[in-house]
Design a protein that fits this description.
Elements: E1 3-8, H1 13-23, E2 31-37, E3 42-48, H2 51-54, H3 57-62, E4 67-73, E5 88-92, E6 95-105, H4 108-117, H5 128-137, H6 143-153, E7 156-163, E8 167-172, E9 181-184, E10 190-193, H7 197-202, E11 205-209, E12 214-219, E13 225-229, E14 238-239, H8 241-246, E15 252-253, E16 256-257, H9 258-271, E17 279-282, H10 288-298, E18 306-308, H11 321-331, E19 332-334, H12 336-339, E20 343-348, H13 355-366, E21 371-376, H14 398-401, H15 404-411, E22 415-418, H16 421-428, E23 434-435, H17 437-440
Parallel strand pairs: 14-23, 17-20, 20-21, 21-22
Antiparallel strand pairs: 1-4, 1-10, 2-3, 2-4, 5-6, 6-7, 7-8, 8-12, 9-10, 9-11, 12-13, 15-16, 18-19
Helix pairs in contact: 5-6, 9-10, 9-16, 11-13
């Protein structure tokens, strides 16, 4: 669930891209990069690590130009290496181009094989590089037509941003699975980003969401933009996990406050909770909003009895299980004096592999909690998500292999409840459809 940002018609393009990426650090922590066009050439700086570790004032001052695109990496396709970091930059017959991508292309291997059979040489294992090759090899005359042709070859969930020496192209997949928003900068330029929290930091004005299947074309020096509907209209399906986990609570996704939606998930959980407890505890930070809704609905006190070390990244995003296990203890510390001899309910956003939940319950037991109930603010995750979430196999998903009672026993909780799919949809809003493949196995992109 990477973060992407594009800025155009701003003399501070690279700096604004930096702050936007900083605001969206939660979407990926493995690598980050920014490409900038000065009107003639594109310069790229990227490295493994977090945004604040990679960029400084000197590096940003060297990234001069009024067009910038940026990316925070969370690996779902490719490997955790610098070669698989973005942006992907190349020189083709139309000049320098640079590309960033959030999502997953489900026909990656088919296209890659065809390109290799026709002489293409790949430098990474990313599906993003496919699109660069498709653009470079296209016989279309304009970059716009080449990009449209490449998109029509590519199937999956995606938000793309393509920079040339004087243009910025933005594209969203026909179903709008990944979020993408358009904003206006204070200096008159434009910004497009995965989440609106990026706009808040730099005081950009939200204009609207990029429409599913839409391509927007910005040109350097032009105060207007061109909009093209590349694909036939289909019923949009924003990913439900944006509301459950991935987006920051202060973001607005498709017109809905993530914070308010998560509170409603907590209220829905509270309606089915039957135990008596002394207080509610959220797993920070992803369980906090739902825990507030849960606590307020039942009028049970909320205690922040698990303290999070904010200098440790999100454990789900770590690429190896060994790092996930270690980081749970580094990241979360229970408060023994608050927890001792208490009956508690722990609110978390989801259970994927179950290892984090098991460790949290164990830490709470060690801290002296008497009874520990676990309430999860989403349905059981039973199917791999091939559209951009790191759950690639059934074997990794505990709820694909165990029923609720077996999951409860594995985690060590005294009781365990999940939302069901209907309750989740009611919490987000039943006026539209969502991408729910993790819960219902409906792989709607063919």
């Amino acid at each position: 669930m990477c973060a992407v940002v594009g800025v155009i018609n701003s003399k501070n393009a690279s700096t604004l891209a930096y702050y936007a990426l900083f605001a969206m650090q939660h979407r990926g922590q493995e690598a980050s990069g920014i490409s900038v066009s000065d009107g003639q050439y594109i310069k790229t700086h990227k490295a493994k690590g977090e945004v604040g570790q990679i960029f400084n004032s000197q590096i940003l001052s060297e990234l001069k130009g009024s067009i910038a695109i940026g990316h925070n990496r969370y690996s779902t396709a490719g490997h955790s290496s610098l070669q698989d970091a973005q942006p992907v930059t190349a020189t083709c017959s139309l000049g320098d181009i640079s590309l960033v991508h959030n999502g997953n292309l489900i026909n990656k291997e088919k296209i890659r094989k065809e390109l290799i059979d026709n002489g293409a040489i790949f430098h990474s294992n990313m599906d993003t590089e496919n699109v660069i090759h498709l653009i470079a090899k296209s016989k279309q005359e304009s970059l716009k037509e080449r990009f449209i042709e490449a998109l029509k070859y590519s199937k999956g969930a995606y938000c793309f941003m393509l920079a040339s020496k004087n243009q910025l192209f933005v594209a969203r997949d026909p179903y709008g699975v990944r979020p993408l928003s358009l904003g206006k900068l204070k200096d008159g330029g434009f910004i497009v980003a995965s989440e609106t929290c990026a706009f808040d930091l730099i005081e950009a004005e939200f204009i609207r969401d990029v429409m599913p299947g839409e391509m927007i074309i910005f040109t350097q020096g032009n105060s207007e933009f061109e909009s093209i509907q590349v694909f036939d209209s289909v019923e949009p399906r924003i990913c439900a996990f944006e509301y459950i986990y991935f987006s920051r609570p202060d973001s607005i996704v498709e017109g809905k406050s993530v914070y308010e939606v998560r509170k409603k998930m907590g209220e829905a959980l509270a309606k089915k909770f039957k135990e008596k407890v002394d207080f509610v505890i959220p797993v920070p930070d992803s369980g906090v909003s739902a825990a507030i809704g849960f606590s307020q609905y039942l009028n049970i006190p909320l205690e922040m009895a698990i303290v999070r070390n904010h200098y440790v990244g999100r454990t789900f995003i770590e690429p190896t299980q060994e790092l996930r296990n270690l980081k749970v203890k580094l990241k979360l510390n229970p408060m023994k004096k608050v927890l001792y001899d208490k009956d508690i309910v722990v609110i978390d956003d989801s259970i994927v592999r179950g290892t984090t939940s098991k460790k949290i319950i164990s830490l709470l037991r060690q801290a002296g909690a008497r009874k520990i109930h676990l309430a999860i603010a989403c349905p059981e995750i039973k199917f791999p998500d091939t559209y951009g979430i790191d759950t690639p196999t059934f074997e990794e998903l505990i709820s694909a292999n165990k029923n609720i009672e077996e999951v409860r026993v594995y985690t060590g909780a005294d009781s365990l409840i999940f939302l069901d799919i209907k309750e989740l949809i009611q919490s987000i809003g039943s006026e539209r459809k969502y991408s729910l493949i993790s819960f219902d196995g409906n792989y709607f992109i063919k």
